[in-house]
Amino acid sequence: MQHYELLTILSIKLNEEEQKKAVEKVIDLIKKEGGQLIKNEDWGRRKLAYQIKHERHGYYFLLELDLLPDKISAIGKVLKLTPEILRYMIVQSKVRTEEEIAKEKRIKDRRIAEEEKKLKEKIAAEEKPVEKKQAREKKISLEDLDKKLDEILKEDVIEE
User: Fold this and answer.
1) Cα 18 from Cα 83, distance rounded (Å)
2) Going along the chain, which residue ranges are E strands?
3) Can you tell me the mean pLDDT for 129-155?
4) pLDDT tens digits, residue range 82-111?
5) Residues 1-17: pLDDT tens digits?
6) Contacts by residues 12-17 (CB-CB < 8 Å, ≥ 24 positions apart)
7) Which residues is 11 bridged to in the sheet?
8) Percent of the chain having pLDDT more than 70?
């Protein structure tokens, strides 16, 4: 048996219940062909790179499975004729160990932390000029403002 990943894109017109039925239909097909489902991931709604059957979005599902190589074409034929599935892709992959999965997660978490740090630094850099401007505005005392206001009001009274 070989290890495969099957990515399916379901139509956005399907509700949650219909999505589950479509995925179950694919899982049943895999089991019927003698395959074993390893993992089922719902990637959610995503924008498509281009329109498929007049749709711009789709629901993505990733299935990892073990299957005999000669059964792939049979599964592909059925998936091609399934109306709920906009596109599918089956690729052979290697089985990842728990260590590899953990390592990928650490790398991903590190990247996210670095991006958050850069974003915080950028926000802090943008806020500093505002803080300086507010500090300059605070230096003007209330007495000075009152004097200015009195001068403006006196000028208006004299001109009339």
Assistant:
1) 12
2) 2-11, 36-52, 55-67, 85-92
3) 72
4) 889 999 999 988 877 788 888 989 999 999
5) 889 999 999 999 988 89
6) 12/45, 12/55, 12/57, 12/58, 12/59, 13/55, 14/59, 14/84
7) 58
8) 88
Token digits of residue 59 = 């629901």
The letter for the amino acid at 90 is: I
Residue 70's identity, in one-letter code, is: D
Phi, then psi, of 56 in degrees rounded to 5:
-105, -15
Half-sphere exposure at residue 129, Cβ-oriented, CA atoms within 13 angstroms: 4
Question: In three state form, how does the secondary structure of 72-116 look?
Answer: HHHHHHHHHHCCCEEEEEEEECCCCCHHHHHHHHHHHHHHHHHHH
